[in-house]
Amino acid sequence: MITETAVDFSDQRTLEKYSSAFTLSDMEIFIFPELFYPLVLANIMSPVIWEWRKDPWFNDIEKKSFNYKINRIKQFIIQNYVFNLDLSTWGLTTKSREIERFRDFFDMDMLKQSNALFGYEGDKYYFDIDIRKHFGLDKFNTDVIPYWKTETVEAMTAFRYKDNFTTGAGECVSLSALYAAAIFIIARIPLEKIFLIATPLHSQNFIPEKEGIITNNRRIVTKNMWFNGTSLSEKARRALENEKVTIVSHISGYIHTVNETATIDRKSYEYFSKKLRDFLRTDLTPEVFINFLRFKSKYKSLFQVVCECSGIKRYITLEKMFEYEHTSKYSVSAETRDLLIKEIEGDEFHLSPFPGKIFLHQAEDILKENTGRSIQELEKQFLELNSDIRPGAITELFRDISTFIVTEPRLPDVAKNYLPSVSPEITLEDTREKIVTKIHRLSAKSETALLTLYVYRQMDMTDWKPFIKAAIERNPVCFDDLNGRSIKEVSVILEKLHNESIYDGQRLALPDEVWNFCRGDGIEKAFLLADFIIKKDPSAELSVTIDNRNVILNHGGNDYRFISHKNLRKTIRIRGNNYEIV
Predict the structure, then answer these.
(1) In the prediction, which pLDDT does 265 show?
(2) For 18-43, how does the pLDDT look when each residue is reduced to its tens digit (9 = 90+)?
(3) Buried b / exposed e across 494-518, counting CB within 10 Å, b at 16+?
(4) Contact between residue 52 and residue 185 where contact means Cβ atoms under 8 Å apart
(5) Which of 136, 211, 245, 541 could form a disulfide with 223 if both were Cys (CB 3.0 to 4.6 A apart)?
(6) Strand, coil or helix: what is 570?
């Protein structure tokens, strides 16, 4: 039996960090980036994704190509999990409350420069989308912000029990951690090749295998897709084009844009940076040029296409051709252009060229004949194609092409003070049981391994103080929904909830997880009731006694009894925000 590792929770920063391992809000991960990869490892420890391997959907997956594996995982996730970022799931907090919580150990001015909800408007992009209105926060005063807690795979899967959901769900950080674990367990990609990328408003992964892939919420993006000009690629490009990268997290550690120190292996970070930059740039080929015109529709008007029918030349605007592309299986690209033209109604063609428009084939010929030439040289040749083009149009065109074919990610500066860290050595040959054992054994000397046990909710091997703090202080939804009820009424409501936890073994759900998913073990129900009592009366005193099956919450001389299947023993005395474990 491996006992819990001692941690000094008299230090407030340490207590906040380990307590944050349970709630994992976007804000908490920004403050404590060392929490990011333990979520991936906790998902790898979980039996949930390992069970996916038994699904017929993944039959013989180990024999397939990298792209096949990734696409199979993508489709499974699309079918079983939706993207969810509503404000009601995990509730709201305030800027002032969070600043008070972290101000003694984090530079709040730096926070405001790096976090979108605290005033970061690093680009015109944030002004354009009206960030608070975009997330539905405009109905509250400007101090209110969402918790946006990152879900474990168990919490994601449990959304199917929640009203108005038929599948699992999760926000972007949850989905990136889910993808990372699935890519390791199902696709058999080593953890050394899985990098998590956080920006102020988004989280995605980069896997530098083959040409590389980016996971983006439930989707994946290949290099070809990044440059294909579709609406999907436009959404996928948005974060890296408009936001700076705040955190890169890896099995070896992390690097943070604000912190002067980093724990990630420097060579791994340099490798990641090079491969990501390679992924985000391409040559200007005729195919990429067509994709760009699809992406930036305002430039379609500069071009026309000429074709020949029965010896007669006919002309059509590129804009009109792109309209037909929407309803055809063929595209404007050179390989299928002739087939697309055959589907276009005859009266769409003209018998005379359009004045002031460049012939598309002439533009493509320049690109074919000048492979490797600079953008400036190509621009000069385009200027010679049609003297009737609006002044400045070609210059604007090539300025936007330059940004389309090269995205320069704003990554954390490589010049950091790199601190050595101990991380679990997990291989593709390891079984789930062996991985769990490795993390348990390493937890005495590796904070990554120890934090993984807290994220995993391994209550028989961790100190309960952080869990109690998280349960009492950061679970507002159950209280908001039950506010106005008596303690007795709430206890009766809890007794009627399904008496089963969303977590197996000696692992515990938080009060809002119990309430959202309408189920909980007796220990979890007792903590929900404790949370309700303390929020109703911040000076209240109560105790929770757990003796295997029997759980008793005592308050004001009244006992509230629940049944547990967790096989745990503990007595907790709570007075407001103070608690004692005996």
Answers:
(1) 97
(2) 999 999 998 899 999 999 999 999 99
(3) beebebebbbeebbbbbbbbbbbbe
(4) yes
(5) 211
(6) strand
Q: Which residue ranges make up each domain of the chain?
A: 12-282+409-455, 286-405, 465-581
574 SS3 class: strand
- Residue 7 tokens, joined: 């941690």
Q: For residues 7 and 453, is the Cβ–Cβ distance under 8 A?
A: no
CA-CA distance, 238 to 446, in Å (whole number)? 36
> CA-to-CA distance for 306 and 207, rounded, in angstroms?
42
State yes or no: pLDDT of 5 exceeds 90: no
The CA-atom distances, in angstroms, between 74 and each of 54, 241, 438 are 17, 23, 29
Which of 213, 204, 227, 182 lies closest to 275, judged by CA? 213
Task: Give bridge partners of residue 223 from the DSSP assignment.
Answer: none
What's the rounded mean pLDDT across residues 343-367? 92
Q: Tell me if residue 448 falls in helix, strand or coil.
A: helix
pLDDT of residue 1: 41
pLDDT at 391 over 90: no
Q: Quote the CA–CA distance of 485 and 271 in Å, as a whole number.
A: 57
Can you read off the two tokens belonging to residue 220?
């994946």
Q: Look at residue 581 and give its three-state secondary structure.
A: strand
What is the pLDDT at residue 246? 93
Of 20-34, 211-225, 227-241, the range with the lowest mean pLDDT is: 227-241
